[in-house]
Write the structure tokens for this entry.
Amino acid sequence: MKLVFAIVSNDDANTVMKQLNKEGFSVTKMASTGGFLRVGNVTLLVGTDEEKVQTVIDIMSKHSAKRKQVVFSAEPYVGASAGYMSFPAEIEVGGATIFVVDVERFEKV
């Protein structure tokens, strides 16, 4: 048995979960934060047989789209009045970070 950990964007989480459920996979959802933008993410946990791991990964990949987003970063400046200026930057967000680990023991009580 394998455990698939996937960190996906809040924007994609519900679609990914619906598609996994539609294909018969049980999913546990945990709210999480992190990364460059410190934005909301969701960590999904899926326990499955080894031969079904690729199906889980394919579903997650298909429904966790990468996209461009404009963010404003505050850059310090020094001058007559020191402070911060905001500069737009286009970055890529979305997608999924996926880990697959062996499960030594599984019980549902």
User: Anything to note?
Assistant: Residues 10-22 form the longest helix (13 residues). The longest strand covers residues 66-77. The CA atoms of residues 10 and 87 lie 25 Å apart. The helical segments are 10-22, 53-63.
